[in-house]
């Protein structure tokens, strides 16, 4: 069924509307000016550019480093090393049931092994260089089985041949070298080339020698003696024979 639609029509439908009058406004016209300035072109200096290209400080090109076979070996060794300690830490963690204890124990083992490896390396180097490590850490004995001391020894009271033989019999080559040097001082004193006094130093005796050849040879044996005695360096039988030959040459020079 259709329903009726009622439309109300107003007798004045446009009541209340305002009429707007439009007005066209003419925009002002501006005259464009042309740029009269001259264009100045700058040229780069080819020589300066070439110098910059050759200067490594201005080379920002990044090159990939070349990995050598040696680098690969160390990378592999380092990888194996880290994996081993990671495996050990995991194993200890399972044994102790504590991750922190397993890690700390593995680190302790690592430092112990590194310390042992460093000691072994020092030992091998010392052997190659012929250095006696025990002698370096050994406290110097005040007696050292020496029947004479530097403070009381008198070169005119020592029987050098017997003393040297006694030192060689017990393989005390350092003492034997010292006795050789003291005997050389006695020889210089017997030839009136020096004035021996117990408080004098080796440098004092060197200053008293005027003959150039005697001074040269005595300087040589003095250096050998000071190196062995005051440097506390141990010597073997062969080294002693070589040093003894120098003292024999000096003795013949005085004869």
UniProtKB/TrEMBL annotation:
Membrane spanning stretches: 111-130
Residue ranges constituting the Protein-glutamine gamma-glutamyltransferase-like C-terminal domain according to the UniProt record: 180-246
InterPro entries in the record: TgpA-like_C
Any Pfam family the entry gives: DUF4129
Domain of life: Bacteria
Entry keyword annotation includes Membrane: yes
Keywords: Membrane, Transmembrane, Transmembrane helix
Protein name, UniProt field: Protein-glutamine gamma-glutamyltransferase-like C-terminal domain-containing protein
The species this protein was found in: Mucilaginibacter paludis DSM 18603
Lineage of the organism: Bacteria, Pseudomonadati, Bacteroidota, Sphingobacteriia, Sphingobacteriales
């Amino acid at each position: 069924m259709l329903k009726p639609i009622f439309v109300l029509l107003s007798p004045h439908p446009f009541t209340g509307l305002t009429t707007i009058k439009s007005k066209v406004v003419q925009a002002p016209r501006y005259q464009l000016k042309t740029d009269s300035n001259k264009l100045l072109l700058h040229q780069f200096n080819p020589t300066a550019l070439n110098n910059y290209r050759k200067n490594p400080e201005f080379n920002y090109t990044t090159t990939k480093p070349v990995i050598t076979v040696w680098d690969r070996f160390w990378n592999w060794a380092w990888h194996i090393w880290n994996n081993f300690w990671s495996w050990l830490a995991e194993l200890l963690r399972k044994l102790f049931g504590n991750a922190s204890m397993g890690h700390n124990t593995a680190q302790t083992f690592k430092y112990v092994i590194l310390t042992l490896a460093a000691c072994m390396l020092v030992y091998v180097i010392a052997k190659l260089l012929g250095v006696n490590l025990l002698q370096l850490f050994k406290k110097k004995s005040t007696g050292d089985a020496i029947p004479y001391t530097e403070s009381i020894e008198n070169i005119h009271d020592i029987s050098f041949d017997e003393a040297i033989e006694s030192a060689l019999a017990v393989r005390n080559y350092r003492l034997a070298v010292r006795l050789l040097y003291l005997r050389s001082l006695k020889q210089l004193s017997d030839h009136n080339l020096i004035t021996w006094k117990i408080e004098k130093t080796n440098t004092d005796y060197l200053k008293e020698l005027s003959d150039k050849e005697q001074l040269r040879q005595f300087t040589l044996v003095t250096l050998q003696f000071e190196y062995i005695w005051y440097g506390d360096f141990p010597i073997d039988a062969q080294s002693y024979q070589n040093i003894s030959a120098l003292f024999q040459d000096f003795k013949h020079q005085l004869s």
